[in-house]
Each structure stands twice: as structure tokens, then as C-alpha cells.
Specification:
two-stranded antiparallel ribbon; globular; 368 residues; alpha/beta
Length: 368
């Protein structure tokens, strides 16, 4: 066990936590299908091509379990009509429901902009400053009801990073954190989750175990928070898990040598995912990665190696968004083949794949 974990236990006042067993959903499902459910992809600029043959074929063949939308996928001339047509086409191709996902935090992280006719949003920092839950609920409902209308069923929000560093270039400076107080962060995040659930949209908390103290942007390279990270950054996760209001959690590509002496990014760290998130915090649900093509991962670990490391660290769904400049486009078929080869070579166990598949299917059972 990591030498630092006993202090995490003390700080969180958690004792004698035992990992729960994941119940098998379906023993007869093929390995190919189970691997496909772990892959979530960006679909490229298909705002004019809802029936793109490649992604449709990959969905039909079970090579992909979800997609993510960016602003580039919004048709500038007919944004609402084309978005609905594209999503309907993707869903129609799937024999297992797809995660249709988006980063729609509000404010600066906002794909469905008002210039396309979508509702006004507010960034978390502004809502945290107002600190009125009715106001937060109002804007959360604007977002969640819109997502539901167009068939988007997963939102990578709320951001529960605690604004430890006010000069953080990717969190505080962009207004993505509700507060430097973890209780305020948790209260507003809980309201956002409740409103999304009312609108049949799943939420994904991010970025575990905390990106709020970083000085660097993990889109561009390694962000090491070893000297700045605080226990307070885990508290929103504990509060929300205790309340039973967590659908899924996203890992950060941050390094913290106090939580992982090998100094691996959280996305690739068995210490952070299995020991802390699943062990200490007793979270047994789906873990999403942040984009595997962000430079903190892609420039420091090989493409194939990072996939193996992430799966063996305990993640369930890997994002390959094809949206970071300087990265080669990766298709679900390429990723699927890499994972299949690792399983065939014994470097990833089939049991490990099955555990993730079961978690994913349990989450997808909540989709409506």
C-alpha cells in the first residue's frame, strides 16, 4: 500500500471500507463487445454528415460505446436540426445504448452557445460567488433540459475542483471552480447533479483527485501538484458519494507523488484509482478518463502503452476525442485492436475487461 494512504484515511475519517463486488451483467457477451464499451470517441467535423459511414459502421460492429460532441460538430446554418439528426443517426446504429456526451459546464466550457440559439449559461465561479442554489438550479436546468431535448445523455460536469490556486490557468482562471471552499463546491455540484437527473442526463464529476491547485494545464503537458495539492480537494467527492449523488467520475492527468510514489498521472495510477478512489472513498462506479490525447499523456507515454496502463489502473471508459491539436486522429477500430492484442498477450486480463463492462452496463441501465 502507498505509504501516504494511512494519512488519507485519517483525513477523511473513513475506516474499514471494503470494495463491493461487481455483479456480472451478462456472462455470454463477447470480449469484442465488452472492449467496445470501454471506448468513447470524438466524431470529427460531421456537422454536415450525420450518416458518416466510418463511425456508423464502428458503432454497428460494437467497436465503440460512446461519442463526444464539440462545437465543431455544430452546424452553423441549422445547428439544432442538424444536431438532433446526427445524434438520432448515431443512436439508431447502436445495439447497446451509446453514451452521447458533451462538456457543458457553462461559461467558458460551453459547446452549445447562444449564437447557435441555445440558452445562456453561467460559469461555476460566478455561481459560487452568488452562492444561491436556486440560481445554480436555474442555469443547470437550462443546460440539462437542452441536452435531454437533443438526445445528449452524459454531461462532463459539474467540475468539483476546489480553487486552491487562484492563478490556475485551466481551472480558476477560467471560472470553472465554484469556490475555494470544498463545502460550497459540493453544495452547488449536488444541485447540478439533481437537476440533471431530473432531466435524465448523467453527470461526471471531474477532475479526480483534484486539479484545483495546479500551476500548469495538462492539455499542454505534465501538471505536477505534489507541492500544492491539499486534502480539501478530495472532500467534494466524499460529500457527494456519501449523499449517493454520483453517476460517474473523471480522472485528471495530474501527477501527485504523495498519492502515487511512482509519479504517474492519476489516469494511469492504480494507487489513485484503485487504492484511493475505489478503496478509501469506496466508489464502485464508472471511471472515465480525461482525453487520452491530451499532451500530459500523449507526449509522455506511448499511445499503446497508455491504453494498457489506464485499463490496468482501473479506468472503465477511455476518451479519445480527436480534438487536441498535434495529435493523430485515432479510430475506435485502432483502439479496439490494441486492447484486443493486449488481452491476447495476457497483459490485460479478460476479467479486468469484464469488470469494466459490468460497471458500464449498470450505468447505462439508467439511461432513458
Amino acid at each position: 500500500m502507498n505509504r501516504f494512504l494511512p494519512f488519507v484515511f485519517l483525513a477523511l475519517s473513513i475506516t474499514s471500507l471494503q470494495a463491493q463486488q461487481v455483479v456480472d451483467i451478462e456472462d455470454s457477451v463477447s470480449l469484442d463487445v465488452m472492449i467496445g464499451q470501454m471506448i468513447l470517441t470524438g466524431i470529427g467535423d460531421f456537422s454536415y454528415l450525420p450518416n458518416d459511414a466510418e463511425i456508423i459502421d464502428e458503432i454497428k460492429s460494437g467497436k465503440v460505446g460512446g461519442v463526444i460532441f464539440f462545437e465543431k460538430n455544430i452546424n452553423k446554418e441549422r445547428p439544432k436540426v442538424q444536431l438532433k439528426r446526427t445524434i438520432d443517426s448515431l443512436k439508431a446504429a447502436a445495439s447497446i445504448p451509446l453514451f452521447i456526451s458533451i462538456d457543458e459546464e457553462g461559461g467558458r466550457v460551453n459547446r452549445l452557445k447562444t449564437k447557435y440559439g441555445f440558452p445562456v449559461t453561467k460559469q461555476a465561479g460566478e455561481l459560487g460567488s452568488i452562492n444561491n442554489l436556486d440560481t445554480t438550479a436555474f442555469y443547470a436546468n437550462n443546460t440539462a433540459s437542452t441536452l435531454n431535448t437533443y438526445g445528449i445523455n452524459v454531461n462532463y460536469a459539474p467540475d468539483v475542483d476546489v480553487a486552491i490556486n487562484p492563478d490556475n490557468p485551466v481551472i480558476a482562471k477560467l471560472g470553472r471552480s465554484y469556490s475555494d471552499d470544498p463545502k460550497i463546491v459540493a453544495r452547488h455540484a449536488q444541485k447540478v447533479i439533481e437537476v440533471h437527473r431530473d432531466n435524465n442526463v448523467l453527470t461526471v464529476l471531474k477532475h479526480f483527485p483534484g486539479h484545483g491547485s495546479s500551476k500548469n494545464d495538462s492539455h499542454l503537458g505534465v501538471a505536477d501538484v505534489s507541492a500544492t495539492w491539499q486534502f480539501a480537494e478530495l472532500m467534494p467527492y466524499k460529500y457527494l458519494l456519501d449523499s449517493g449523488r454520483v453517476d460517474a467520475i473523471m480522472t485528471a492527468h495530474i501527477v501527485n507523488e504523495h498519492l502515487d510514489p511512482e509519479k504517474l498521472p492519476a489516469t494511469l495510477s492504480p494507487y489513485m484509482i484503485n487504492d484511493i478512489l475505489r478503496g478509501v472513498l469506496n466508489y464502485q462506479g464508472v471511471v472515465f478518463t480525461d482525453d487520452m490525447q491530451m499532451h500530459a499523456i500523449s507526449k509522455n507515454f506511448g499511445f499503446e502503452e497508455s491504453i494498457k496502463m489506464a485499463i490496468n489502473a482501473g479506468v472503465d471508459v477511455m476518451l479519445f476525442c480527436n480534438n487536441v491539436p498535434g495529435n493523430e486522429r485515432r479510430t475506435p477500430s485502432q483502439i479496439h485492436a490494441i486492447i484486443s492484442d493486449y488481452v491476447a498477450q495476457g497483459e490485460i486480463s479478460e476479467d479486468r475487461i469484464r469488470i469494466s463492462y459490468n460497471r458500464i452496463m449498470q450505468l447505462k441501465s439508467k439511461l432513458k
